[in-house]
Amino acid sequence: MNPALLTAVTIIASFAAAAAATWLVRGWLERRRVLDAPGARSLHRNATVTGGGVAVAVVLVVLWLLLLPLEDGPGAALLIPVVALTLVGLLDDIHNIAWLQKLALQVLVAAAIIVVAGPFTRLDLFGLSIDAAWMNILFSLLWIVGMVNIYNFMDGIDGLAGGYGAVCACVLGVWFVLLGADGLALFMYGLMAACLGFLVWNWSPARIFLGDAGSMMLGGTLAAVGIIGQREYDVPVGALVLLFSVFIGDTAFTLARRALRGAPVWQAHREHLYQRAVQTGLSHASVAGKVLLISVIISLPASFEMGRVDPRALWPAICVLVLFAAMILVKRREKKTQ
Predict the structure, then answer these.
(1) Least confident stretch, 17-26, 67-76, 82-91, 203-212
(2) CA 86, CA 228: separation in Å to the nearest integer?
(3) Cα dihedral angle (256, 261, 264, 268), rounded to 10 degrees?
(4) Which of 257, 259, 289, 282 is nearest to 272 (CA)?
(5) What dihedral angle (degrees, nearest 10) is formed by the CA atoms of 13, 14, 18, 19?
(6) Which single residue of 193, 199, 251, 275 could bond 15 by disulfide (Cβ 3.0 to 4.6 Å)?
(7) Global pTM?
(8) 8-state DSSP, 71
């Protein structure tokens, strides 16, 4: 089949399948009363069905099976986070397991991904290259567990996590096409379309949430794709960090801010920049849209870093400035609404 036609079929089929699967999963979860009730640390007003990431995972498993015969198709390492993290997350959505137990399961899944796919072979960060084996393994473990939890932390308003997953998957798909990894590119385009299909039900006002089943799965899958991209196609780790810097930056800033004043960093809260923006009166759709626009802007310097376009020190500086500007705008709006 013509590559362009195959890409189009993959995107359309994944979108339609995800939208339909989300409708089915929503009914199934609703009958079992798997609901996210509003609380002091949440930003929604009504009890909403959660665990909808199961629908996205089902589409990705089917897509993985269809692409498996391709020489450069998604390997077994990508099936691990899709299946395992969805199950762990769904268990938490239903039974609300202790955070230490959840962290232990995340570490086990991350270790399994590293065993199957291997760790990063080199930490190429903005011109600085580190290839110590023990450091690569440790960073790989922290990378996966970190991305799983960062994505989980940032899934707090309608449409944000699914939309961000679509943007990042689209950019990774373009990168893999340029690198000649057509199978992985198709998997990323399928992930993009599945996220968009889920957004049919998750955009504000959301009728279903990703839940831990979806947020953990997306974070872990994108992390695993990053490792495979670096190992097999020499994608710089710095490019991956920049691509995901909107979620990484918000989480790092928020947790550092809480730690400095002695607040527990592991407790649920409403102090992320996107949460603070909503609390100033902006709608979920407005905040999610602005964050996704920022992520599109940041994908440009991330792509320059991926292509190792000089001066390489400039690309992280641009991303930091964009994120800093967003932080200043949130703080100014908070002062106006006080």
Answers:
(1) 67-76
(2) 20
(3) -70
(4) 257
(5) -50
(6) 193
(7) 0.96
(8) T
**247 contacts 150 by C-beta, under 8 angstroms:** yes
| Alpha-carbon gap, residue 221 to 82, rounded angstroms | 6
Mean pLDDT of 89-117: 95
Sign of the alpha-carbon dihedral angle for 208, 213, 214, 219: positive
Q: Which residues contact 267 (CB under 8 A, 6 or more apart)?
A: none
pLDDT in tens, 29-62: 999 999 998 887 788 888 999 999 999 999 999 9
> From CA 185, how far away is CA 171, in angstroms rounded?
9
Distance in angstroms (rounded) separating the CA atoms of residues 54 and 60: 10
Q: H-type helices in the chain, by residue range?
A: 3-31, 53-67, 76-80, 86-95, 99-117, 133-154, 160-178, 182-202, 211-233, 237-243, 245-260, 273-279, 284-306, 314-337
Cβ–Cβ < 8 Å for 233, 240: no
Cα–Cα distance, 298 to 240 (Å, whole number):
11
Q: How confident is the model at residue 306 (pLDDT cuts 50, 70, 90)?
A: very high
Nearest to 241 by CA among 142, 112, 119, 154: 142
- Cα maximum dimension of the chain: 59
Nearest in space to 327 (alpha carbons), one of 222, 173, 115, 319: 319
Tell me what percent of the residues of the chain surpass a pLDDT of 70: 100
CA–CA dist 227, 237 (Å, integer): 8
Q: Is the dihedral of CA 2, 16, 82, 79 positive or negative?
A: negative
Q: Which amino acid does the sequence have at 319?
A: C
- Secondary structure (3-state) at 143: helix
